Amino acid sequence: MYELFYAERSAAMGTRVILEEIGAEYRLIGTDIGDHVPRAPELLALNPNGWVPVLVYEGGSMHEASAITVFLTGRHPEAGLAPADDDPLRGPFLQWLVYMSNTLQMAYQLTYYPWRFCETPDHHESARVRSCIRLREIWGFIDQAIGDREWMLGERFSAADIHLFMLTTWLSPERGHPTMDEFPNAARVAARIAERASARKVYG
Ligand SMILES: N[C@@H](CCC(=O)N[C@@H](CS)C(=O)NCC(=O)O)C(=O)O
């Protein structure tokens, strides 16, 4: 039985979709990650950064959504969510997971939490504007890489597609983010994930 520190609209929803795809037993631990809200001591004990997802498994715990995905898909290979180590698609699988977490998610962080990156509030607007441009660039790179292929890995569906879908749900027009209409290839992949029973259960 897994436990997942969880909040709506967060990266933890993507982890939950993966748990659903695997068919694993899990329990959600709802936690408040609102701006400037003190974090639950139980969350801070496992992730002093105070963010979700945090996955608790027998004998341990971990944070970082992409790492959790590699961990879970490796533990449950029968779910077919990740290419095996000797599959040539393993490289692109890891590449996209890391790219989404260290590049795409960072651009989102800058728009959602500008005070973490700016010395003074008068720089927040500049950070917001620049990070919206950055979001457009990064989604553009992803869209181009997908091209007319079915999934991020070409013909093979993987947990990377679930991450992509999860990250489309963070786009916020009121923050001036681009919309998925600008990235039809990525939008196509996301739409196919949205149809899956796992995603409907979590996001429905
Ligand atoms: N690098 C982390 C970031 C996760 C993250 O950004 N979580 C957000 C919700 S989507 C969060 O908990 N934000 C609250 C905070 O950063 O204080 C990961 O990939 O798991």
What does this structure look like?
The protein is an alpha+beta fold. It folds into two domains: about 1-80, Glutaredoxin (3-Layer(aba) Sandwich); about 90-195, Glutathione S-transferase Yfyf (Class Pi), Chain A, domain 2 (Up-down Bundle), CATH 1.20.1050. The protein has eight helices and four strands, in the order βαβαββαααααα. The chain has helices spanning about 10-20, 40-45, 65-75, 90-110, 125-145, 160-170, 185-195, 195-204; strands spanning about 1-5, 25-30, 55, 60-65. The chain has a four-stranded mixed sheet, with helices on one face. Strand 3 (about 55) and strand 4 (about 60-65) form a beta hairpin. The longest helix has 23 residues, at about 90-110. It is globular, with a radius of gyration of 17 Å. The model has no long low-confidence stretch (mean pLDDT about 95). Bound molecules: glutathione. Glutathione binds near residues 64 and 101.
What's the arrangement of secondary structure elements?
Blueprint: E1 2-6, H1 12-22, E2 26-30, H2 41-46, E3 54-57, E4 60-63, H3 65-75, H4 90-112, H5 124-146, H6 159-168, H7 184-194, H8 197-203
Parallel strand pairs: 1-2
Antiparallel strand pairs: 1-3, 3-4
Helix pairs in contact: 1-3, 1-6, 1-8, 3-4, 4-5, 4-6, 5-7, 6-7
